[in-house]
Design goal:
By secondary structure, the chain is an alpha+beta fold. The protein has one domain: Yope Regulator, Chain: A. Helix content is about 40%, strand content about 30%. The protein contains 4 helices and 6 strands. A 6-stranded antiparallel sheet has the order 1-2-3-4-6-5. A hairpin with a 4-residue loop joins strand 3 and strand 4. The longest helix is centred in the last third of the chain and has 24 residues. The chain is globular, with a radius of gyration of 14 Å. The termini are far apart.
């Protein structure tokens, strides 16, 4: 299912305080990047903005009741490292920018670890 244009336009507008990001279509969703590190995505049946999570920012997401995105892949449930954001965070451009900054750092660290392997 393709991402609704209205939602994508809204999210991009809310990201106006985030510097140097790009986005592109990916697997029926939209990926958000800083350089080649993907820090976020719009994915799932209900067009949800999700950010990259690790131990450094997991408590933030847990504190707002967020959970990781899961999907069926080849008959198995796969849990991803992208967690949904509540609308009230997306609606606050400054707060969203802070959350995206943390997620971008997570994505960049993850990318560096993979390159070393």
């Amino acid at each position: 299912m393709a991402v609704k244009k209205e939602y994508l336009d809204y999210v991009i507008g809310q990201l106006s305080e985030v510097e140097n990001f790009t986005h592109k279509k990916m697997f029926g969703g939209i990926g958000f990047f800083r350089g080649d590190a993907m820090w976020g995505a719009i994915m799932g049946e209900n067009d949800v903005l999700r950010l990259k999570v690790d131990d450094s920012n997991k408590a933030d997401f847990e504190s707002v009741g967020s959970t990781p995105f899961s999907m069926m892949v080849k008959g198995k449930l796969r849990t991803m490292t992208y967690w949904g954001l509540p609308e009230y965070i997306i609606a606050d451009k400054s707060r969203l920018s802070e959350w995206v900054g943390k997620a971008a750092l997570v994505a960049e660290r993850s990318k560096k670890r993979r390159k070393k392997v």
